[in-house]
Design goal:
three-stranded antiparallel β-sheet; about 55% strand; about 70 residues; elongated; Dodecin subunit-like; alpha+beta
Length: about 70
Amino acid sequence: MSVAKVIEISSSSPSGIEDAVTQGLKRAARSVKNIKGAWLNEINVVTNDDGEVSEWRVNMRVSFVLE
């Protein structure tokens, strides 16, 4: 039998959504073991005064199996 837990994290990147997700998962993996998946809850952007995207932000749920 296995039991999974879900946590919610936020991360950001000036490079894009994929990089924000990757960096968030890498950081979570430093303190959480057995990560099995993630799903995005929300995607936001920060813009400069000209309306150009300066930063991508994601909120995601990360699931991992408890030992």
